[in-house]
Amino acid sequence: MADENPEWREWMRAAQAGDQARYAALLTAVLPPLRRAARARWPRAGAAEIEDAVQETLLALHLSRHLYDPSRPFLPFLFGIMRFRGGDAMRRTRRAATRETALDDLPETSAALATNSKVEETLDAGTLRAAVERLPPGQRQAVALTKLQEMSLEEASAASGLSVTALKVATHRGIKALRKLLDGSD
Amino acid sequence: METEQLVARLSADLAPVRRLPAPGVRLGWWLLASVPAAGAVAVGYGLRPDLAARFADPAFVVEFGAAALTGLVGAYAALCAGLPDQPGWKLWLPAAPMLLWLLTLGRQCLDVWLRIGPRGLAVTDDLMCLPAIALGGLVPALAIVVLLRRGGRFRSLHACFCGGIGAAALGAAALRLYHPQDAAVMVLVWQVGSVALLTLVAGPLGRLLLGTAERRPGFLAR
User: Fold this and answer.
1) 0.90 cut: is pTM over it?
2) What is this model's ipTM?
3) Residues A174, A139: contact at Cβ < 8 Å?
4) Which of B80, B154, B157, B222 is best to mutate for the A interface (most A CBs within 10 A)?
5) Among A46, A79, A103, residue at a domain's last position
6) In terms of residue numbers, what domain contains A164?
7) Is B82 on the interface with A (CB under 8 A)?
């Protein structure tokens, strides 16, 4: 194999004997050919998927280091592991991708996740307006000013000529009546 | 975790390991455990009285040899399957002696059919074949599971199928030493059929016994 460095067999032999420095050197040295091989094997995979496959391969190499025979070249051993374990990682990632929706494309409010939110909003607004129309005139005016137009009590008092206390009472009664009209609850 | 961090963690986690011997050596261990066990089953049942005469018949020798070779090559393929750098063609090696076994029996069936006609190919009950082959293949099957557990977890289902065919074929070869059934069609249906059935069971069962996942290092334990 073109990328094979003859020292790697010796480093792997040393790793089997517990030599941490040579093992670290070996893992670092094989990263570029491993990444190249992963990209060649899964050309349509993204960078993160390739890195997952590379990491899974390194982990499986670590767990399978007793299987390596130093009389044989090292890269076919490593690439064999990549084919099986890297392939497993790739399949896992792709399976997960088919079950998930990327949240990055959505607005960051939870209300945005609701389905048919616009439709429901329109229907609710229409129902509410119809219910407000059915209120007695005093309550209808109070609810319209303080709730629908979101005026303060002082502003609503100035606009309607009613006292603040009368507005409070009319709004309270209006809301109570609206509840009854909309869902029959008290 | 970044890959470079993983490299550092794996290096720090490194402990010495005992190297796994080559598949040929492990095949020798398997034979050491399996042949005496299958032989003991044959002796236990009582060797057939015409055994010497049967071994003088080249057709019997080829058929027996093909069964025994299927056992041997099946076990070898199983031991190779768990190693990531073993080529894929080795995993299909058992097909060659199996094909020879089937062709030998098929040719014998054809001879009988040409000499006697369809009447010569009648199949009768020979139910003892299945348990006898299972018994003869029991120790070989356990031995291959032990060897595979020490090996890698790559292509483990394929390894278990190959191991299953190896153990069952060895049990079938042993059966030929004590069961005086030489009608090719009966051997084909009951003995080869039992090997096929036991292999089908051994594949998933072996994988269950083997487990598929290696133990991950402590810092990555899920």
Assistant:
1) no
2) 0.80
3) yes
4) B154
5) A103
6) 118-183
7) yes
